[in-house]
Amino acid sequence: MTKYAFGVDIGGTTVKLGLFDQDGNILDKWEIPTVKENGGEKILPDVAESILEKMKEKCIAKNKVAGVGIGAPGAVDDDGYMCNGAVNLGWKPLNVREIMEDILGVPVKANNDANVAAFGEMWQGGGKGYRNLVAVTLGTGVGGGIIVNGQILTGANGAGGEIGHIHIEDHEPEACGCKKKGCLEQYASATGIVRLAKRRLAEDDKASVLRDGEVSAKTVFDAVKAGDEVAIEIAERFGEYLGKGLAAIANVVNPEVFVIGGGVSKAGEILLQYVKPSFAKYVFTPCANVTFALAQLGNDAGIVGAAGLILGR
Amino acid sequence: MTKYAFGVDIGGTTVKLGLFDQDGNILDKWEIPTVKENGGEKILPDVAESILEKMKEKCIAKNKVAGVGIGAPGAVDDDGYMCNGAVNLGWKPLNVREIMEDILGVPVKANNDANVAAFGEMWQGGGKGYRNLVAVTLGTGVGGGIIVNGQILTGANGAGGEIGHIHIEDHEPEACGCKKKGCLEQYASATGIVRLAKRRLAEDDKASVLRDGEVSAKTVFDAVKAGDEVAIEIAERFGEYLGKGLAAIANVVNPEVFVIGGGVSKAGEILLQYVKPSFAKYVFTPCANVTFALAQLGNDAGIVGAAGLILGR
Questions:
Q1: pTM for the predicted model, two decimal places
Q2: Contact between A254 and B287 using a beta-carbon 8 Å cutoff
Q3: CA dist A161 → A115, A304, B165 (Å)
Q4: Cβ–Cβ below 8 Å for B155 and A132
Q5: DSSP strand pairing (B257-261 vs B133-138)
Q6: For the complex shown, is ipTM > 0.95?
Q7: What is the CATH number of the domain that holds B10?
């Protein structure tokens, strides 16, 4: 009997949903708004209702649903419990798995959204074929997901892979969003690159296309591609920090592959050119044999990985 | 039927062996010399012979041996293969498990010695009751072993948990044994503490008991206990570095407990006092809830953990 799975990626603005066949093909995908009023109490019931509607629409009986996988923005333990809730959703502590299984009557698995996206990239994306993988998401912040022997490294409190807050610089005057100073996220995120760029531009008057118009991670890497010397210096500083952070991670978990995703990774292969030399400089030699790949699933990584919690091995 | 297991800890000078009952009690322990001539070709046959002799002596039939666990000084993958051999033993690449199973005819498991010791501390020592643990060995160097969900984090090349070579200081003039600069091991090992001490003593003429006689990790912490101000400064610098390194590790794998062992840890609880504040300063808050414990098994951690590979869960 053909089985189906649903993948759910709960974000602060929208919830992404996907219907998958047992081979992991996306049969349908759609979004619903994330209703955060009253402590986000409608979010999970809304998701459940949307899944039940889709089952009706597609004539999928409950016994044909292998399960529902869910990625949520916060620490989720292996049982599906979020001991700190989810700030972005207004959630107090709750058990995502229990609540959804009670409503849906099918097996549910939940994990942190970054971990789930990492699992997706291993199952169907840039890390396909690997079993020991670290996914690095360079977006507004820096997130991470770690897969060891094909399993998500959830951590004791569901906070495994919080690589954005590894301390990487002893002489940082400004505080990170986490209130500490010198976190990887302060240099390797989209906003971090803008900070590095503004600092570099303030150092002297050297000509650069970055002096005209708004500076963003995209304009920096576009300027790098155009050979802008100041932009290249900025990319070198970015690469120095990110490579140093990834070397520390490699020494701890010894992965086969780093899969780099998130908005900043749209710069493409050129980004990796700036990371690899620094990584090689800082990594312990026995852990140095790592492949660098770009993420391939984009915004679908969350729903694919969530379905993978049910269907993947 | 009562079953037995053997635990083997292969070191550069001696091989430690232990006979265990199925509940993990040590029934007997002994050592044999590590014969490193001719690429260490006699080491594994010597170990096998010693085990077979012990079985004869104790009247233990082969079908009563649940297996033999082995810790070896180098990277060992999950199959027992050492792709880099073992420098300290003279070994070229070889498969420890295969060789020993061929001679002994009982199940054999092998892993890196630091990982095995970590497993031992989880199973019977300072980390008993925990399933997510990082063992930190502060000896001549700094070694580590990581347990995730009760399983050793071996890593892609068997080099998981190589925490001694996390880059921790950007302004280090001297090279580490690994040839890079600024590794955790350069500050938190027994030799690292001596380096920190000598540097501090050279800074000024402030009175200290450390100015008389040889400086070692032991004399530093003895002086700390006696209230020596210079020694306290040295311990603070040591704690700053080690806490920073452990914070990076906690952000990556989110353990429940750090188990601190090795010669330096003989200083006792006072050592933890210097590590915890720095750890708290650098760790990402969701990963901060970690217990610090001292290792309990001492030199037996290797044989206990090796037996645990067979008997533990």
A1: 0.91
A2: no
A3: 8, 19, 19
A4: yes
A5: parallel
A6: no
A7: 3.30.420.40
